[in-house]
Fold each of these.
Amino acid sequence: MAFSSDLDRITRAAAGDPAAVSSLVDRYSSGVLALATRMLGDASEAEDVTQETFLRAWKALPGWEPRAKFSTWLHRVALNLCYDRLRKRREVTMEILPERTDPAMNPAELLDQSQRVRAVEDAISHLPERQAAALTLCALQGHSQAEAADIMDVSVEALESLLARARRTLRASLLERAAS
Amino acid sequence: MSGQMISDTRVLALIETYGANPDMFPDAERSAARARLADHPERFAAALETARQMDALLGGMPEIVTPDTLRSALIASAPQAAPARKFSWKLPVWIPAGALASLTVGLFAGMSVAQPATTQDEQAEAAVYASLGFDTYTLDLEEEALQ
C-alpha cells in the first residue's frame, strides 16, 4: 500500500491499520536499532530500547502533532532511553584515553577486518555518550547536520564540536587497542 | 558560501569533523571548501589522509537490520483496529423462555381487567363528545343514572 507521507502512515496506524504500522516499523526500526546498538554496544539492550521507543510512539500516535517530524521524534526518544541506560551503568568508570595524533599510525592497518569492526563498535560504545550519538547519527546513519542537531537538541555548532572530538577520541582509542 | 572565501583553518576543521569526503560537509560551505582543497592540495594532504583512515573504518561497519522476531514484536505492540461487532441471533435459552412467560402473564392480566365492549351507539356518542372537547362523558352518564 502506498502512503503519501509519514503523517498519512501515522493517522492510519493510529486507527489500527496494519499496513501503516508495518510501514512505520520497516521505515524506522533499523535506524533506531542501529543507534541503540552503537550507543549501548549490546544487541539485547538495543532491542529493548527499540521496543520501548516504538511503544512510546504507538501511544503518541493518536495525539500526533502534524508539524512534528516522526523520524526526529523517534530517534530522540531512542537516544534519551540510551542515555538513561548509560547513566545506570555509571558504576563502570569510563577510561579517558589519551589523545594520540601520530599520522604515521593507521589503525586500519593494525587490525584485521573482523577485529576492526569489533574494535570500532566497542570504541564507539565507550565514547562519551554525546560524542557517540553525534558520530552515529552523522557518520554512520547519514543524518544531515541539522537533523542530528535537532535529534540531540543541540546547536549545529555544538554538534560539529562533538563530531570532531568523537573522531579524535575514536582514533586514539583504536590506536591504543591496536598497540596493546 | 559558494564563491566566498573560506580559511584553511576552517577547511581543516571541516575535514576533522566530517571526514575527507567534501560531500559530507555542510551544504553552505561545500563549494568553497572544494575550491580551497583544489587550489592548495598540499596544505590539506596530511589531514585528508588521517581522515580517510577513519572514514574507511566507519564505512566498513556492517549495516544493522531489524531481525524478524523484533519486527514482529514491534508490529504486535501497535494499536489494533477495534474489531467490528457481529450481531448474533444465537441467544441464551432463558431469554426466549422468559419472553414467552412475560407474554403469557401479560395477556392473562390484560384479559382479566378488560372493559366490556360498548355498543356502537355509545362509541359514536363518545366520539362526538370527545370532538367537542368533553372528556367527562362517561362520568355524566353515571351521574344521570344515579339520579
Amino acid sequence: MALAPEEPELVQLLTPEGELVEHPDYRVDFSDEELRGLYRDLALVRRIDAEATALQRQGELGIWASLLGQEAAQIGSGRAMGPNDHVFPTYREHGVAWCRGVDPLNLLGLFRGVDMGGWDPEEHHFHLYTIVIGAQTLHAVGYAMGLQRDGMVGDGGPELTGAAVAYFGDGATSQGDVNEAFIWASVFQAPVVFFCQNNQWAISEPLERQTRIPLYQRASGFGFPGVRVDGNDVLATYAVTQAALARAREGSGPTFIEAYTYRMGAHTTSDDPTRYRIAAEVEAWKLKDPIERLRSFLIRTGKADQDWFEALEEESNQLAKHIRAGCLDMPDPSPMTMFDHVYVDPHKPLANQREQFAAYLASFESTSEEHS
Amino acid sequence: MSGQTTTLAKAITMGLRAAMERDSKVVLMGEDIGKLGGVFRVTDGLQKDFGEDRVIDTPLSESGILGTAIGMALRGYRPVCEIQFDGFVFPAFDQIVCQLAKMHARSKGHSRLPIVVRIPFGGGIGAVEHHSESPEAYFAHTAGLRVVACSNPVDAYWMIQQAVASDDPVIFFEPKRRYWEKAELDTSAGPPAEALDQARVVREGADITVAAYGPMVKVCMDAASAAAEDGTSIEVLDLRSLSPLDMDTVVASVRRTHRLVVVHEAPVTLGMGAEIAAQVTESCFHHLEAPVLRVGGFDTPYPPSRIEEEYLPDLDRVLDAVDRSLAY
C-alpha cells in the first residue's frame, strides 16, 4: 500500500515533522493568531469526535461516524470558504460543520436518533448530512447552477460570488451520481469544488477496489483539473481549496481535490477494522498525524506557548462538558412529530392518520387514569 | 384568450409557458427539451422564448436531472424536470424517493423542494420496451411526494400550473397516448373547481362507479356510453390525484352506487386499485353490494407492442368487470 508522502504530485506545505515546505503553485500567508486558530479548530473537532465516540460506547448515541485522522482535510477546506460558499456534506463532515458554525449537538441529534439533522442549511450554508453515498454531489452541482443564474459567478470576490463544495469519499467515486455530477459540472462550467477525502477505505474495501488510477487523475477525463493534496496538512488543504474556490467563483468551472488522508478509526462505531486491515498500516499513518505536525511547528517556532496549549485544553474540556450534558439532556421527540413537515401543505389523509394515532395514544392515557 | 381546440400535449406547453411567465424562478430541465422541444414536443418553442438558462438541455442522465434540480430548488428555483419516458425514471429513483421526497421532513421544514417531475406514462402507442410503463404506485407509496395524472387537455393546462405552484414535489404523469387528443380549451375560463388533489365525477351514474385516471378515463367514459345503451348507468370518476387519494369523492360515489370498479394500466397487484379497494372497504363496507373489482395490467412485464392491446384494459374488459359486479 502506497503511503504517499514522498509522491511528487502531493501538494504539501507542512511536513509530518512540522517543517514548512515551499510549493510552486500554492502558499499560505497566515498570522500567528490564524495559525493558532487552525490548531484550535483541529484540536476541538478531535475532542468533539472523541466525546461522541464515548457517548456511543455508553449507549447515548446509536452510532457515530468518526472523523479521526481527517481533521486537517476538513478544517483546511472548511476555513478556506467564503460567506457565499455552500457545503454539501456526507455524514462525516463534523469538522466542516464546525467551521460553518453548526453546534456539535445538532450533529449528535442525527446519531442519537432524535432527528435527521437539526440545523437550518441556509443559515449555515451547510446542507444536511447525506447518507446515500454520493447523492449530495448532484445537489451541489444544481446549487452551483443556481448561483450561476443568480449572477453569483464572476470577478466580485468572495463577498459577491459563491461556489458549492461537494464532499465525498473514495468509495463514492464509484457511484453513478458522482460521475454524473462531474459531467454536469463540467459541461455547465458550474462553480463547484469536488472535495474528495480519500481516507483509503470504504468500510472494508480498500482504494484498490474503487480505482486503478490515482483518483485526482480522473478529473482530466471529465475536463477539469484534479489535484492531490496532503489531506493531513491543514495548510496545504486550505491553500488548494482556496484556489479551487476562487477558480469556481470567477467562472472557470469545477476542480477535483483529492485530499489524501487516512481513516484512523473504524468506518463507524458499528465497524471492526481489525477484520480487514493490518495494525502496521494504522501505525504508519499515526506518524503523519494532522494535529501533531502543526503542534510541533507552533512549539518549535514559538508561535504558541505552554500557557496557550493549557488554555486550549481547558476550552476543550468545557466543550466536552457542553456536548455530554447537551446529549444527555436531549429529549426524545414526541411520537407525533413524525407527522411534522412531511409536506409543506399537509394533506387530509395524512392529517386523518395523525388524528387517529393521537387518539390511539390518548386512549392509553385515559386507561391509566382509570386504573389509578 | 377565448376557446381554442388544443391537444393535450399543447395544453401542457401552454401551461408551462404561463407558469414561466408568472415566475422567473421556474426552469425546465430535461433531455432534448430545447431545440427539439422534447420527443413529444411538449416544450416546443419554450427555449427559444425563455432562453437556455431557463429551458436547460441536460446531459443524458436522469439521476443527474433530479439531483441537480434538487440543488437548484435549494437555491430558490422551481425546476420542472422532464423524464423522457416512464421506463427511464428509475435511474433517478434514489434522488426522487430518498432525497426529493424526504428533504422537507428531514430539515424540519427548513428546505423546500418545489419540483415537478413530468413523466409521460402508459402504453398503447406501439413502442419498444421501457416506453409503456405505469410506475405511479412506486411514487404514491412514498411519503412526501404528491402524485397526479391528467386525463384531458383542459386539466393538463391547469394541473401543470398548479403542480408548478405547489411548494411540495409533484410527480406529474402525462397519458402519452392521449397527447394528440383534442379538446376545447378556454384559458380565460379559469381553473376547474377541483383543487389539484381532488377527484372529479366526470359522468354521473346510478348503478355502479368506475374510477380511473390518466389514459384510462377515456376508456371508462366510452364503456359508460356503451353500457348506457344497454340500460346500465355507470358513474365515472377521474381520480386526478393518486397521492393523496381523494377518497371523499370515491366514497361518496360508492355510497350512491354501492359498487366500484377501479381501472388502470398498471399491474393490479399492489396497484392504486388495491389501495382504493382497501380504503373503500374500511370506509363504507356496509354500502357495498359487491366486492371492489380491479381491472388492470397483468403481473407480467409490459408485453411486446403487437400484443399490448391484449394487456391494456379496454372497453370490453371494463364492461366485463361491471357485469361481474352487477351480477354479484
Amino acid sequence: MSLGDLSVGQAAAQPNRAGSAVELSGITKVFGSGNEAVHALGPLDLAVEAGSFVSVVGPSGCGKSTLLRLIAGLDSPSEGRMLRYGAILDGPSRDVGIVFQDHVLFPWATILENVMLPADVFSLPKAAARGRALRLLEMTGLKDFASHKPHMLSGGMKQRAAFCRALLADPQMLLLDEPFGALDALTREELSLELSRLWQDLGRTALLITHDIEEAILLGDRIIVMSKRPGRIRLDIPIDLPRPRDVNTAKLPRFVEIKQLARGLIFTPEQD
Amino acid sequence: MTGASRTSIAQHAITPAIYLALLIVWEGSVRYFNLPAWVLPAPSAIAITSKEWAPELLFNSFVTLRETLVGFLIALVLSLPLAVVIAFTTTTRRIIYPILLGLQSVPKVALAPLVILWLGIGNWPKIVIVVLVCFFPILVNVVAGLESVPKNMLDLMRSLRAPESVVFRRLRIPIALPHLFTGCKIAITFAVIGAVIGEFVAAQEGLGYLILISTAQSQTPLAFAAILLLTLISVMLFYVVELLEKRLVTWTP
C-alpha cells in the first residue's frame, strides 16, 4: 500500500519543492538571566530545503531539542530571525507535525481517538479523518489495536501511533525529537527504516533530532553535527547514499566514512 | 475440587471468619465478666434491640442518609465551577484561594452551633454543615487535578494550536477526573460525620439524634445499633463512589 492515496484533501497539494521550509539566521537561545543565564544555543544559521530530510545530531545537552522547539514555534529565540515557508515564524503551525521523544498518547483515549486528535482540534470532517487514521494505522501495523488503550501496547507500537497522529492532518513538515530515543535497539532500527520508507513516499520536509549517528545518516539527505553547549553547527554535509535504504546501507564505505567524520567531530573539542 | 479453587475459597472466607471470631469473643467476654448492658451490650443484645426498634432505626437512617447525600451533592455542584475559575484566572486565584485555604483550616465542627443559631433546627442547618465539610476536599483536589496536566501534553496541544476550550475538554477534564474522585471519597466520609455533628447539636431526628437520646436514657444497645448503621452508611457510600470511579476512570495513568 502506498501513501499516495492518503491525502485528506486539506493539504493534498504537492509541497513546494523549491525554496526553504525553514530559514534561521543568527539564532541564539539563552535561558534565565544574569549570573544564572545558560547560553544553550547559537549563534546559528540554518536553512532546511522544502522536501528534504535533515538529521541533526549532537551530544546530549547541545541544545538540539531546544533547536527543534524553536522551529516548532513552542519557544522563541533570544535573538535572530526565523522564517517558515517565507513567513515569520512566531508560533506553532498546523502545517507542522511533531513526534516527541515520549509518545504523549492520552491514556484515557483509544489509539484511534489519539490518532484522530488533530482532526478533532482542527474540526476536520470526521468520516474522512477516520478513514485516513485507519489507513495510517494499517500501514504501521496497528489496525487491530485501533480500539485499544495505549497502556496495552508496547513502546514501539505507541511510538508508531504517535507517528500516525503527527501525519493525520497531512502536515507539510515533520519535526522528530529523538522519536526512537526511548526504544530498544532492535525496535529502533526497525522503526527508523519504516520511517525512511514512509517519508520517501510522502515527500514532505522532515527534521530529525537524534544522538544516534547511524540513525541520522540512515534517514537523512543531509546531516548536521552540533557542538557542545552552546550548540553550534560544526558540520553540515549532504548524505549522498542511494535510496531506498535498508540494513545493508550501513555497510557501504561512504556510510562508514560519514560516520567516522561525524563521530570524530563529536568527540574532539572545538578549535577556535 | 482443585487446589487453586480451595485456596481462593479460603482467601474469601478469611475476612468473615475473623469478624465472626471477634463477635464470639465480644459476646463471650460480656457474658463471662457479666458486664451490664448499659456499659457494653453483647452483640446478641444489640441484635434484639435492633429488631425491636427496626422502624425507628430505618426512619432515622433515612433522615441522616438524606442530609448526607443532599449536602454532598450541593458541595459538588458548588465546588466544580469554583475550581475551574480558580484554576484558570490568576486574579481570582490570588484573591479567593488564600481565603478558601484559610477557611479550610477552621474546624467545621466548631461552626456547627453557629450554623444552627443562624438557620434554626430544620434539615437545612445539617445540610449546610455537610456542605461545609465536603466542599474543600473536592475543591482542592479538582484544582490540583486541573493543574496537573503534564507539560508534554500541553506542548502537544499547543503545537496543534488547540483553543483552550478544546484543551479543557480533551485534556484537563480527563486529567482532573481521578483527582475529583479522590476528593469525593474523602468528602463522602466527611459528609456522614458532618450530618451526625449537626444532629448532635440540634435535631429531632436522625441517627446522631438517636445516639444522643439513647445514651441519655442508658439505652446503650440502641446507641450501638445506630452507630453500626452509621458505619454501614459511610462504607456503602464510599463504595458507591469507588464503583463510579472504576466505571469512569478506566485507564492507568
Amino acid sequence: MPLLELRKISKNFGAIRALDEVDLHIEPGQVLGLMGDNGAGKSTMVKIMAGNFPPTSGSIVLNDQEVHFHRPVEARQKGVEVVYQDLALCDNLTAAANVFLGRELKRRFGPLRILDYSAMFARAGKLFGELKSETRPRDLVRQMSGGQRQAVAIARARLTDSRIVLMDEPTAAISVRQVAEVLDLIRRLRDQNIAVLLISHRMPDVFAVADRVMVMRRGRTVADKNIVDSSPEEVTGLITGAIEAA
Amino acid sequence: MAQDVETQASVAIEDVLQRKEATWWQGLLSSQPFWVTVAVLAIAVTMGFVNSNFLSTGNFFNITRNFSFIAVMAVGMTTVIITGGIDLSVGSILGMVAMVSAVTISNGFPMEVAVAAGILTSLAVGFVNGVLIAYVRLNPFIVTLGMLSIARSLTLVLTGATPVTLRRVGEEADRFRNLLAGDPFGVAMPVWVLIALTAIVAFLLRYSAWGRYVYAIGGNEQAARLNGVPVDQVKVSVYMLSGLTAGFSGLLVLAWAGSALSNFGQTWELRVIASTVIGGANLMGGVGSAYGGVIGAALIEVIRNSLLLAGVNTFWQGTFVGLFILFAVLLERVRSRG
C-alpha cells in the first residue's frame, strides 16, 4: 500500500497548464527520484505535496485518507516534511534553534512558559547523532558547511514522526564531499522506513540512492520505473524528449 | 594511496579539534555591547580624574535621566531593527503622546486617564505602522517616514502649536509630575522605567518563542514563514512595542518638562537609531540586544556630557557622535569577518 499517492493531479496557472493529470505514489522506506528539465513540473508537484498551494484538480491520498493542505504547516502536521532547496534556515540562529523553529520546546518558569534551551540542545544533538552528522546544536548556522546545513534541515524534518520527506535539489549547490554526506543522510532516512522524494538534476545522485525513478516532461509523467530497470542514458533521453516514453 | 587516506584523515581530525565550542568569555569578547560598556566606563573614569564635576551626584543624575528618554525608546527600536525593519516615527509618537496626555490632564481628567490615553495613542500608532508593514507589505522606512510626518502634524492640529502646561492646573497634574518626575531611592524615575523595561524585553527576547521569532524573521523571513512562524503578527507586535516605548518616553519627558511642546522628540528618532547601532544592532536584521540599545544611548550621552564639561564647543558634539556611529559599524564589519 503506498504511503502517499497523488491521483490525476493537474495544476493551471492562468492559461498555462503546469501539470497534466500526473500520478505519483511512494512507499515507506523508498527513495523516489523525480527528474525532469527546468519547467517540467517537478517543483509544482513538490509545492502541491507540501501544501504551498492546492491542485486545480485531482486528489492527494495520504495513508488511505484523502487530504487537503492549505498551508505548509498542515502538511507538516500530517507527517509530510520538506527540505527546501535553499534549506529555509536562519543563519543568525543556532542549529538547535533552526531545528525547532516554529515548534519550540518550553518549560514552566513560575506562571510562565519559557524556551527550554537544554532540552532543545539535547534533542537536536540526538537527531544529529542519528544522522551520524558532526553538526553541533550550539553552533550558528552561519558558520556551517553545506553538508552540515543539510543535516540541520533534515534533522528538522525528523523532529516529529514524519513519514515522508520531500527534498528539493539538496545537492545542487554543494561540494563533492558534501554531496556524499547528503546521500548518506538520505540512506539513513530510508533505513528508518521513511519515504524520501528526491528532486534532482544530478543523474549520479539519483542513481546512487534512489529505488525508483520518475521522469516528467512538460507537466506529464513520461516514465516511472525501478532504478535497476533503467539507465542514466535512458533517463537523459526521457528528460530531453529523445525517448518519448518508457 | 594508503598514505593519502591517512593524510586526509589527520587533516579532518585537526579541523574538528580547531573548532572548539565557543566559551562564554569568547562570546563576551566578540559582543559589541561589551566593548561599548568598556568604552563608557573608560570615558567615565578618565573624566572623573580630569574633571571632578563629572562623577558628582548631580551630574550623574543628569546623565542617567537624559539618556533614559532615548534609551527607553532604543529598547523598543531594537526589536524592530532585529526583524530587519526600522521605525522613524518614534520621535513624533513621543511628541503626540506628551501632548495627548497633557491635554487630557489639563482638562481635569485624573492622572490615570491621562496616562492611559497616552499609552493607547502610542499603541494605536504602532499598530497602524505594523499593519501597513506586515499585512499591506509596505516598506517600513516609507511607512514610518509617513507616520513621522502625520503624527507630528496631528500634534500641531491638536493644540494649534500652543504649549500645554501642567503647572498650576490642579492636583492631578501635580500627582502626575510627582510620580513620573520623582526620584524614588535617589534614582530618577525614567531610570527605573528603563531598568524594568530593559529587563523585561531582554528576558522576552531570550526566553520566549516571540523573541526567538523576532530574531528568526530578521535572519530569514521566508524561512520563518515556511516553518510556521506567525511572521505578520510578530511584526505588528514589534512596531506596537516600539510605539509603546516612545509613549513611555513621551510621558516621562512631559512630567520632567512640566509642559508639552509640539516639537517634543523632534529628530530624536535619529538618536535612538544611532544608539541601537552603536549597541550592536544590525540594520540588515537578525542581530541586536535590548541592553545594546541602552548602552549605546549611554555612550552618546557620556560623550556629549564629557565634551561639555571639557569645555569643547557644543558644535563639535555631532562630529564625535557621528564618528562613534561609523566606528561601531566598522567594528561590526571586522567582527563578522573574523
